[in-house]
């Protein structure tokens, strides 16, 4: 595709096919995203329709690799053609500057030197002719018309100069215009192709993380290397030290520390032991282990991340709709302006100014640039969404990215968003004898069904305590449990149980769990859902971004007040149900606020769906992530302010690109038409083509600033 008009043509062609629901073309990424009914139409038929429109479509099982290879081949072909064109265009330009009024011999020489330039620029003529046959026009049509008119006029003046002499006119030739137009446009295309590769660098880096082969262990215990695509769930795979993990799976045997920073952003390696999950693309460090395959190839978490980013990059921002409408009428309008320019020149100045009229008409055709308009939005989106992925921010589509820049109110769920989501022992007081009897506490809590029991189990195991035998285990509803070990009675529970067991001794509200032996206290523990280490700083950053922060929780008032105060949040509500969260979001929207809802659980899904921008924590439930427009992969709230900042910068870049793209054409087309000729300024086709090439490249370079 040579410009936004081409992208619109492909989009319209596919969208009108029977069985196609949606079709979106990303001009900067050269991708087509289609929603279709496979019972009504096949990919082969879609491909044929695109080919009939004068383009091609890569459709294969390994489309990603094929597309990258095709893109690389296209870049190399452009490079070779550009070098060839300049080898002939430069001498043509130099000779034209030396011989202002060339002799017949020089004229014929310039014509011969221009022919190879036309040959290497044949793609413009092929594409432009195909477009004209189908009753449409694109950027290649403008190049084809401008160079064809210039060359044919020059050829006529070379072969039959007497015609102009007999009319009292000088037989001008414009071979240098033909050669330099093609040279500059091809150079612009080359720089554009190179810059486009940079915009999709984040996707390529993600794709390169996943290994292509794995070490399969057969039932006999023998290992052999096989392509990852051949692995099935249940297969056994070996992973050696220093290797990337090829699939998503569960550790069967062995242990090692695994660097998961590419997925979570956490720099500290995690110990993986039997029954622990591991993810494709993460790096195994020193140990070796065997894993059981759960997902491979396109089903891994990494592949889903890549697919999500690609779909987001291929989506269209709302502002792109305006650009598409302008692009649809842009080329025909430019052709009409070019013809009108020629007519006005002749009408005002007469046939004696024929050369100037022709030059101006050709310059109008050349300088108009639908490419810059077509690239303005998608290049910025591609870079912005890719940059987000590198920072562990997955943005579902362009609408979310554009909408996030308007957010001025953020509603945060408490549990799992501001807090760790799992109760932990945050404070303890240990009395003499605890070390001896801690194994009894561990055994009792393993049997207990109380929600806080697992927190104590984790705490005791982390301290290195092991199980002991207990008997006479009894659960006391609403209080705790009692048991026996070695003929001695032990108890563990809340303040009420401790009051009974210790003969009426009362305790302050600081502690939540009490452990004792008969009438003697052995330990007290404070177990609560702790605030994440970065939550307070994250809230401060949001406030600095001009965002109001609210907290909602179904927890009791004391817990809500404590967390809100610790996080620096003034506006909070407690005891809220899923319906209440949704109504709170609606109430903020009625006040004219653009609301982002951040949550991680099923109870947040209603509010997430209602919000202007929905954000899910990556360690939350699948329901929350399915509803959300944005996913923070490592569940660190610090990423939210980064996402808002990224959105604002991306939207600013889009607006800058559109301003310069529209402004460029508004200013340059009249100049090319000759409005400044009365003060001695007339733009030649050669410089018009240079300006056109620069406009496209400047838009891409501006987008790349996001990197």
What does this structure look like?
With 707 residues, this protein is α+β, with helices and mostly antiparallel strands. It folds into five domains: 4-54, 2-Layer Sandwich (Alpha-Beta Plaits), CATH 3.30.70; 68-202 and 309-382 and 651-704, no CATH class; 212-299, Calcium-transporting ATPase, cytoplasmic transduction domain A (Distorted Sandwich); 388-419 and 533-647, Rossmann fold (3-Layer(aba) Sandwich), CATH 3.40.50.1000; 421-531, Calcium-transporting ATPase, cytoplasmic domain N (3-Layer(aba) Sandwich). The chain is built from 26 helices and 24 strands. Helix 4 (104-120) runs parallel beside helix 8, helix 5 (122-133) packs across helix 6 and helix 14 (370-390) packs parallel to helix 26 (685-704). The longest helix has 36 residues, at 63-98. The radius of gyration is 35 Å and the shape is elongated. The model has no long low-confidence stretch (mean pLDDT 83).
Topology:
Elements: H1 4-15, E1 20-26, E2 31-36, H2 43-52, H3 63-98, H4 104-120, H5 122-133, H6 139-159, H7 162-166, H8 175-199, H9 201-207, E3 213-217, E4 223-227, E5 236-239, E6 248-254, E7 256-259, H10 261-264, E8 270-272, E9 277-278, E10 283-284, E11 289-295, H11 301-314, H12 320-349, H13 354-367, H14 370-390, E12 393-395, H15 398-404, E13 409-413, H16 414-418, E14 419-430, H17 434-447, H18 453-462, E15 471-476, E16 480-485, E17 488-493, H19 495-501, E18 513-517, E19 520-531, H20 535-544, E20 548-552, H21 557-567, E21 571-573, H22 578-590, E22 595-599, H23 605-610, E23 613-617, H24 622-627, E24 630-632, H25 638-673, H26 685-704
Parallel strand pairs: 13-20, 13-22, 20-21, 22-23, 23-24
Antiparallel strand pairs: 1-2, 3-4, 3-5, 5-11, 6-9, 6-11, 7-8, 7-10, 12-24, 14-19, 15-16, 16-17, 17-18, 18-19
Helix pairs in contact: 3-4, 3-8, 4-6, 4-8, 5-6, 6-8, 6-13, 8-26, 9-14, 11-14, 12-13, 12-14, 13-25, 13-26, 14-25, 14-26, 15-25, 17-18, 20-25, 25-26
